[in-house]
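Below is our example:

___
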Amino acid sequence: MLRIMTHPATLTGLGALSIVLLMAFFPASTLESSLRGLSIWWQVLFPALFPFFVISELLLGFGIVHFFGKLLDPFMRPLFRLPGIGSFVVAMGYVSGYPVGARLTAQLWEQKLVNRAEGERLVAFTTTSDPIFLIGAVSVGFFHNASLAPVLAAAHYGGALVIGFLMRYHDRRAPISGMLVETSHAAKSRQRSRIGQAIKAMHEARLLDGRSLGKLLQDAIQSALRLMIVVGGLVVFFSVVMEMLTKTGLIEALAQALRQLFRTFGLPGRLADAPIFGLFEVTLGAREAGGDHGALMHQTALAAWILSWGGLSVHAQVISLLSRTDIRYRPLFLSRLAHAFIAMLLVYVLWGWLGP
């Protein structure tokens, strides 16, 4: 009986039932938090992510991804044990932020351009914040200090690259996609220029896709809209969950325990609210970190932790995007946790050079 009660599926079901009961007890708060999550999705996430989803679909259809894959293959393999095509995911993931990297990784997996191990490596270090949110929302909006952007960006993206390098040792026995094809054509490849190979790969990918421009654009928009609905649903759901946990006092209890731990290490107790909120949702956590606590270096380190962890809301978005693949969640969870603490440490290391 005890074993059944502690089974993950049973615990998840009990948790879901508890949330439903709380929603019934607090209907007004449920509606208010739902509208708050919907507002964040419509006003922030939809305009920020939808264009990137459409563009990424178009670039895949046009073969641009294959062009950069062939061009950057010599760099990606020795550094990250990834095929060159992964460079497109890295670039788009860093520019457009979570969960674009996961979406592109799932697309490459579906096209058999990466295997499970490579997909796990890619998602591990491309699940990052976008520069607009890091600079505009966090540095300027929450901290009211644009000079924090260099140290925050260096810690966050530098930590991601460290994770990418460490992940090259993940599942080392797994093959690298494209290795056999490349080896069998090694003699011909040496005779062609790298750019020539890249153009040829792009042309072949475009012919293989075969869709007209109109059809490609239609498919890209439909796919992007479906993804945005999933993202919006998860944002609203976690907004409600956070409100319900706050109503029960669980959030405050966790914050009290963490405040005591912070005071033990000589840190302001008020800073404890930031990682508690950031554990669930990155925007709420970053906003708490940017409050007037009088400990700017520690606040920045916590903001780097929150941005790199991503929040369970982002984790849920990534899991939903990878649900049709065999890519596992455990490597993502461990890499996010490691990235959070590496980025936090990098803030303290870089503060003397890049800090305000």
Observations:
- The CA atoms of residues 154 and 198 lie 31 Å apart.
